[in-house]
Design goal:
Largest sheet of chain A: 8 strands, mixed
CATH class of the largest domain in chain A: Alpha Beta
CATH topology of chain B: Ubiquitin-like (UB roll)
Radius of gyration of chain A: 25 Å
Strand order of the largest sheet of chain B: 2-1-5-3-4
Number of helices of chain A: 15
Strand order of the largest sheet of chain A: 3-2-1-4-5-6-9-10
CATH architecture of chain B: Roll
Radius of gyration of chain B: 12 Å
CATH superfamily of the largest domain in chain A: NAD(P)-binding Rossmann-like Domain
Number of helices of chain B: 2
Order of helices and strands of chain A: HHHEHEHEHEHEEEEHHEEHHEHEEHEHEH
Strand content of chain B: 25-35%
Largest interface: A-B, 53 and 26 residues
Strand content of chain A: 15-25%
CATH class of chain B: Alpha Beta
Shape of chain B: globular
Number of domains of chain A: 2
Distance between the termini of chain A: 82 Å
Structural class of chain A: alpha/beta
Oligomer: heterodimer
CATH superfamily of chain B: Beta-grasp domain
Helix content of chain B: 10-25%
Largest sheet of chain B: 5 strands, mixed
């Protein structure tokens, strides 16, 4: 039930038949975790607080810096040097005393992500880096939480709702859009490149809007669609995203795997599962006589006779010939050093979910050294 | 035949324009190769290709008149 003070406070919601008393009570019962209390986090937090979300958690390890004030509108000059999560919690609690606001002045990592996220129903991703974003995505998938995604770059923003169940169907995730992080942090976050101050205000408000829609059940949730906004032209484009089941190959699928996952950029732990070294390969060749070897070197590199009988698909042609590979057969990819064969497997995993494909670790270089050592012994 | 590409984020900064026109590629793999040759810096990001406002997964045929958008992830928040 709402008390008289709350009824007055939320009157403009109560007057909307689409929300009304039942919608406002749903907002009161909702638990939302906002990860990142920066440019996106500030408007998300302010509007969710005003809307009367019953419990709001704030995760942020950072301190207020003078250069934040241009867009992080919760903070003032007096807050410089203070912990964002704490300052935000104090101000928001003053803004609405009817709700419960909890601050977590911590950096989200593989150890604390599951315990932080599991007590909330909706997770709002307001982070400014890929490592956190992929971690949030993977934990949301594991724990079946809805992830409200927003991100910005200079004058442009992206918004979508990921991992949302609707009409008994699971919507796409962040990894269905971008399966793996870029090798580099790219061309930086807004601490390093500029960003238009009002842009996170616009994008963050859109994220808050999705939280309210999902909670009250009104409107059409931005699920399966990516909204792209250009603040300079005010052009908005919606792109359809489909669920890609093969992404399970690119991500940790259990809490144990999350604890061992390396979220730093440029490393792909899972592809290592598909590596075998020359000792394992020799054992395999002893027990299995039907192995398909695929040489992924370019033809001009092949000078000596190949040590394995099989087929050749130069790495540059892998994508065009991917459907020729019969994935039910034990298949070993090899190249000179093991790099391209590992990359070939990554490409194959985008298209299929094979269980018995391997990359020869260290490539032919390692294989030849191994044979040489044996001859010397 | 030519194809018009809409570019977002860092990709439009690399090309210094929000749309470019390239030779019509047969499919998205060929388009990636073409972009990689013209703009090697594109390889630093993991962009996705949307055809007629649908994000593609794997290789997709491109037809004359298709609207193509090329989208990198954004880091900022």
């Amino acid at each position: 039930m709402l008390n008289n003070r709350e009824i007055t406070k939320y009157k403009r919601h109560l007057l909307l038949p689409e929300i009304g008393m039942s919608g406002q009570l749903k907002l009161k019962q909702q638990k939302v975790l906002v990860i990142g209390a920066g440019g996106l986090g500030c408007p998300v937090l302010q509007y969710l607080t005003a809307a009367g979300i019953g419990e709001i958690g704030i995760v942020d390890f950072d301190y207020v810096d003078a250069s934040n004030l241009q867009r992080q509108v919760l903070y003032t000059e007096n807050d410089i040097g203070k912990a964002k999560a704490i300052v935000a919690q104090e101000k928001l609690q003053r803004q609405n005393t009817s709700i419960n606001i909890i601050s977590y002045p911590i950096k989200l990592n593989i150890e604390n992500a599951i315990s932080s996220i599991q007590n909330y129903n909706i997770i709002v991703d307001c982070t400014d880096n890929y490592s956190s974003r992929y971690l949030i995505n993977d934990v949301c998938v594991l724990l079946n939480k809805t992830m409200i995604y927003g991100s910005i770059h200079r004058f442009e923003g992206q918004v979508s709702v990921f991992n949302y169940y609707w009409q008994e169907k699971k919507g796409p995730t962040y990894r269905c859009l971008f399966p793996t992080p870029p090798k580099l942090e790219g061309f930086a976050n807004c601490n390093d490149s500029g960003v238009l101050g009002v842009l996170p205000g616009i994008i963050g408000t859109m994220q808050a809007n999705e939280v309210i829609k999902i909670t009250t059940g009104v409107g059409r949730v931005l699920c399966g669609r990516l909204l792209c906004l250009n603040a300079l032209t005010m052009e908005v484009m919606h792109l359809e995203i489909e669920r890609n089941l093969n992404i399970a190959n690119f991500m940790p699928n259990t809490s144990e795997e999350i604890l061992q996952w390396n979220y730093s950029l440029g490393e792909d732990v899972k592809s290592k599962q598909y590596e075998i070294d020359h000792i394992q390969l020799e054992k395999m060749m002893d027990t299995c006589d039907d192995i398909l070897f695929i040489d992924v070197r370019e033809s001009n590199e092949v000078i000596e006779p190949r040590p394995f009988r099989g087929i050749e698909i130069p790495f540059s042609e892998i994508r065009n010939n991917i459907h020729q590979i019969r994935t039910e057969k034990t298949t070993i990819f090899y190249c000179k050093s093991g790099k391209r064969s590992a990359d070939a497997i990554k490409i194959l995993l985008e298209y299929a979910n094979p269980s018995n494909i391997y990359s020869l670790k260290g490539g032919l270089d390692a294989w030849k050294t191994r044979n040489l050592n044996q001859q010397l012994l | 035949m030519k194809t018009k590409l809409l570019l977002f984020g860092v990709l439009s900064e690399i090309t210094k324009t929000s749309s470019i026109t390239v030779d019509l590629a047969m499919d998205t793999n060929q388009l990636r190769k073409l972009l990689s040759a013209s703009f090697p810096d594109f390889d630093n990001t993991n962009y996705v290709i949307a055809i007629n406002k649908k994000v593609t997964v794997g290789n997709h045929a491109i037809n004359d008149g298709d609207e193509i958008a090329i989208l990198p992830p954004f880091a900022g928040g």
